[in-house]
């Protein structure tokens, strides 16, 4: 790390745009005609005019990095609370005075040209991904001091990592499978746009108050068709301090959910995201992240590299026997998604989502090898209603046939007696 680099703290701990569901967000103040009011400043809520608006003269080095972003009047936003903060930036819950709606403002702290350029790319890549399960960007710009920011939807709810912690049994965790499928479909959409996320994990999936799944933190996203989008494959670990740690290092990603080729700092494609989605599904089925032992030491020095070494040395422990007996199709999907060789995985997240949808609908899963007995059992189960009707009809026909036979026998006996 060079002398000008920021400290190796967690650059993305602030990234998830999550406001706890229990927090009460005050309604935007309005004037008599219903327009947003500036009265909140008298209630002790800071306006950006009071904070970053007067952040000093524009910094030429930052202006060069983000000179295509418009200068924004900080007075447009009223800050309410800081949602999260990390070594590189923070998320502020705020109100857009013009539109009168809540937003999450993401901005850099201790910005330098390199990180400012990456931040700009993150905002632009996220903004062009228009999908219900991808956090939408409402605005992007730079403050008068040159520091970039962007405004996005304020997602209120819990992240998937917390929900998995609160589900101690396989049955409870399987109830979260539709959320994982929704994430796979969102990432499948991103792959169709030639964008990969590169840091998928339960902590970067927010489940909103109405049950919607939202993929957040696209800070490591890479445009595959860009010759030089600045998203290097060698940089810093990302994570939250558990099985997903952020440390200064050599590769991008989160060790517990990272594809082997990503751990080797090789160029990656959509199949690295597929591996991470498979690792999330592994977490759902097993109740813990792959390489769970990696998460036992929090932020101790060298922790991330130990995780990388374990990842490169061998695959994670096999899923529990209970899982393979209860949902063998899902276990097979995990095995394929987390294949060590990228060529053996699903090509994109969309193919993975289709497999999961097939399982959900009770259809055959291509990754699973079915025995003849299992095929017959599934066929009977799927056609149970038809088989029930057919069996009833056969019973009626058999009964009618038996009755007819009895009558014939009786008629023959009667004829013989006469």
Keywords:
single chain; 418 residues; alpha+beta; 5-stranded antiparallel sheet; 13% strand; disordered N terminus
Explain how this protein is built.
The chain is elongated, with a radius of gyration of 28 Å. Helices cover 37% and strands 13% of the residues. The protein has helices at residues 60-65, 113-128, 160-165, 170-174, 177-192, 260-263, 270-286, 303-313, 321-326, 328-337, 349-360, 372-382, 384-417; strands at 18-19, 77-85, 89-96, 101-108, 137-142, 148-152, 155-159, 195-196, 205-208, 213-215, 222-223. The relative contact order is 0.09. The chain contains 13 helices and eleven strands. Helix 5 packs antiparallel against helix 7, helix 7 runs antiparallel to helix 10 (328-337) and helix 10 runs antiparallel to helix 11 (349-360). It is an alpha+beta fold and 418 residues long. The strands form three sheets. It has a five-stranded antiparallel β-sheet with strand order 2-3-4-6-5, covered by helices on one side. A four-stranded mixed β-sheet has the order 1-7-9-10. The chain has a two-stranded antiparallel ribbon with strand order 8-11. The longest helix has 34 residues, at 384-417.
Brief characterization of the structure:
This protein has about 425 residues and is α+β, with helices and mostly antiparallel strands. Helices cover about 35% and strands about 15% of the residues. It has helices at about 60-65, 115-130, 160-165, 170-175, 175-190, 260-265, 270-285, 305-315, 320-325, 330-335, 350-360, 370-380, 385-415; strands at about 20, 75-85, 90-95, 100-110, 135-140, 150, 155-160, 195, 205-210, 215, 220-225.
